């Protein structure tokens, strides 16, 4: 018994000592509860140097946490117990979070840099007047492929993927809306289609693609494509840019049937503790030089018109990432289809995944 | 209530255990059952159970059981001789430690390593290439899924079997041999029956988690293998259809309880 008490004492004393040391270290660096800012963002979606620069300029310590799907992020914020000050959801998630009252309004007077944003990206249907969200990045969903592995063959459309010569060569990203959207687009339906007959047709079309599919994966898709594990991949444009910078043989194409155009915007969740700091952070990211640096690092397309001037010409003039107006007309933004429809999309996607070769 | 101090202190000691069980075992199970009766819009319904009994989920259940069975069978096939060999070696503890060591490494890290090893330009294919077999697709196949799962679970199979073999009184084996049993008969009639509890414990430790594997199905099998675990993850994180996720979990709990009862009955019997 005596030994047991001794043991417990040792454990308690060391735990408190550690607690004291961490809080001492934090305060010695000038960090207290008040001047920290918790940013909740997608993985690998910011230039880490910018965080350091922001900390230096403002004296606010940034705690950076990441998520890998809008749904996971919303679940965490909705459940509470977190103190995220800034989050970066996609457009359909923003309209959902707005409906559920998970967002705080943004004070535009605290964001002088907002004027640099291209008006094309402001006042969109998911957030009229940008009351709750400020553009961060935008991009498309498309096809990355390796012409060398395909014997010089070019891919220009979704329907090219059903070519029997591509047997076991395609990697898909594990997202119900992306893949169902691809099938819907290949049938010339809208990727927001809610007609169940159309969705069933899209699912049957996906089943027919099964022999060509090597795997349906998550973020690993970048590494697998760069390593030439497969010749074709369905990915987001920014991932494509990253893959192409690692393996120059690869090319990215926006399919001619049209595809998804998406936006990731910065928001202030209702869990925010440091609202002032959140505005400072958003304004900092809107600064053209910072936005340009971030766009160059991350590889996605920046909505910041002034930032384009600071970016290398070959990036800005690349139609694969900054598509022409003609192509841009065929791009569609995901609408919030409601929980029930989304569940139906997911159910079909799950059934497709279970379809054996 | 007798009210003696001894009895009081016994209740006192039971508090941590009882509250742990209540908070982290019983309460979650009740919650899972509770959630399974709600549809995606929060209406009370039995639809989730009806949905589970449709071909989609039944096929998923069958394939989960099939893969879990394969994983358990291969683990046992490798683990039993290994454990047997271990009891005969000189530095038992060292060998045992080497087998346990990989379990200290994060699971995800080990799985990621296999992405590199099994890749088209990975270690195994480089070896195949040099010995003239040529490159094969290893990643995203049933083979790689079962292989990696067996690799991950095998320590949990070896340990209980090893312990059972260690406890086995060697004079029983000697006696069998003295009485003229061949080594195969000795194994079949003496060694194996006496270590059956270890085998059962090992099978439980492998089969039950295999049923609900999910990360490996995506990373190693490229979502070409869909288990009930994958579906639970999908429903909770992506679809946010907690009701359906909970319903699948209910069936998993029932399946696990059944397995425990079937494989664990000897413990309740007359033995010892």
TrEMBL record, chain A:
It comes from the Bacteria. GO terms for biological process: polyamine transport. One of its GO terms (molecular function) is polyamine binding. InterPro entries: SBP, Sperm_putr-bd. GO terms for cellular component: periplasmic space. Spermidine binds at residue 92. Keywords: Periplasm, Signal, Transport. It is found in: Periplasm. Its main location: periplasm. SUPFAM superfamilies: Periplasmic binding protein-like II. This is Spermidine/putrescine transport system substrate-binding protein. The lineage of its organism: Bacteria, Bacillati, Bacillota, Bacilli, Bacillales.
Automatic annotation (TrEMBL), chain B:
It is found in: Cell membrane. Residues 61-263 form the ABC transmembrane type-1 domain. Keywords: Cell membrane, Membrane, Transmembrane, Transmembrane helix, Transport. It is a multi-pass membrane protein. GO terms for cellular component: plasma membrane. Coiled coil: none annotated. GO terms for biological process: transmembrane transport. The chain crosses the membrane at residues 12-37, 65-87, 94-123, 143-162, 201-222, 242-262. Its main location: membrane. Belongs to the binding-protein-dependent transport system permease family. CysTW subfamily. This is Spermidine/putrescine transport system permease protein. It comes from Thermolongibacillus altinsuensis.
